[in-house]
Design brief:
CATH architecture of the largest domain: 2-Layer Sandwich
CATH class of the largest domain: Alpha Beta
Structural class: alpha+beta
Length: 350
């Protein structure tokens, strides 16, 4: 009798723990309609309450179906410092796309293909559990959780993770529906106000008019994504000059607001034009890295460079680049030394 009471008490304590965890996560998800903040808050709560060392969420883009890293918690430095290791497919994503990552039996600890051949900077991680995220039959993404000492998940852990995955799925779908609704409302509001706003701006000054154009432009980059547009820009520049300009993108599947795309592209355009016209360089790497918090554009060259402390601010398109970056709350870094080339780096918060 005493043994049975102890077993019942232990089960009750476990159920209370599960309810505490799930209630905390539910509160975190219900406080936000912005999908990024909701996921970050919920993931932090889950990692703390479930004693997870690391967790991250893959989401599938609604339009392209491509995966992107939507949120992460304590990713090992071997992955964090090398964003390209978090690009492309992996075992858990491939299994999910094929429809095999479904049901409790398959939500188990698997070897992480991104960490498998690494030694340094992994924090001892080799395995993670993958939890599929669905909205009815619609695939949303995958939740991965890990701890260094995991080898097998208990039924209680599986139950909590399944419920957590269901809650995340509901939150993601709700946030996307809210965003769609907000965009529809914003379009109607802009249509009513656009004419009056444009007239007022025309009577004021050119700078305010430029801001309005950036806000109202409906189809930036001629319908292309920022990554594709930058790739085309580099390809065209290579055709016109002997400089070898190379473009590399990381995290480009993550959606970026149209206004930011319109801001980033001209910066790259101006920087590449300067390289072609003034640098006498032979190589010029161009990179775009999109993380959950920011977009970073880097344009470098190995040309003759210049003294960046003495360049007049009205040269090299510095005014235009600086204004565009500051307009979006970002930072522009310009570094150059005579004989050692030039670096232009623009960081814009998402």
């Amino acid at each position: 009798m005493a043994d049975q009471l102890e077993v019942d008490a232990q089960q009750l304590r476990q159920r209370n723990r599960e309810l505490l965890i799930l209630n905390a996560i539910a509160d975190a998800l219900n406080c936000e309609v912005d999908i990024d903040r909701a996921l970050e808050t919920a993931l932090a709560q889950a990692a703390d309450l479930m004693q997870l060392q690391t967790a991250w969420i893959w989401l599938l883009d609604e339009d392209t179906g491509k995966s992107y890293l939507a949120c992460s918690q304590n990713i090992p430095s071997a992955l964090l410092d090398n964003p390209r290791r978090m690009e492309g497919n992996c075992y858990c994503l491939d299994t999910y796309r094929e429809g095999d990552l479904d049901g409790t039996a398959n939500v188990n600890v698997v070897t992480c293909s991104r960490l498998k051949n690494l030694v340094d900077g992994t924090d001892g991680l080799r395995y993670h559990a993958s939890i599929p995220l669905y909205a009815h039959e619609k695939k949303l993404g995958v939740l991965n959780v890990a701890s260094a000492d995991w080898r097998e998940l208990s039924e209680d852990d599986l139950r909590i993770l399944h419920t957590f995955g269901d809650m995340l799925s509901i939150a993601v779908e709700r946030a996307r529906l809210y965003a769609h609704s907000a965009r529809l409302g914003a379009v109607n509001e802009r249509v009513r106000n656009a004419v009056h706003r444009a007239l007022d701006l025309a009577r004021s000054n050119l700078e305010e008019a430029r801001r309005s154009v950036l806000d109202l432009r409906a189809a930036p980059l001629e319908g292309r994504s920022l990554s594709i547009a930058l790739h085309d820009l580099v390809r065209e520049a290579n055709q016109e000059d002997m400089i070898k300009i190379e473009f590399e993108a990381s995290g480009a599947n993550r959606p970026i607001a149209a206004r930011l795309e319109v801001g980033i592209y001209p910066i790259a355009q101006e920087a590449i034009t300067n390289i072609v016209k003034h640098s006498n360089a032979s190589v010029a790497p161009v990179s775009l890295v999109v993380s959950p918090s920011r977009a970073t554009l880097k344009v470098m060259d190995n040309g003759e460079g210049f003294d960046s402390q003495r360049v007049p601010k009205n040269r090299y398109g510095l005014i235009g680049m600086t204004e565009r970056v500051h307009m979006h709350g970002g930072k522009l870094r310009l570094e150059s030394t005579p004989g050692e080339g030039t670096l232009v780096e623009a960081q814009l918060p998402l």
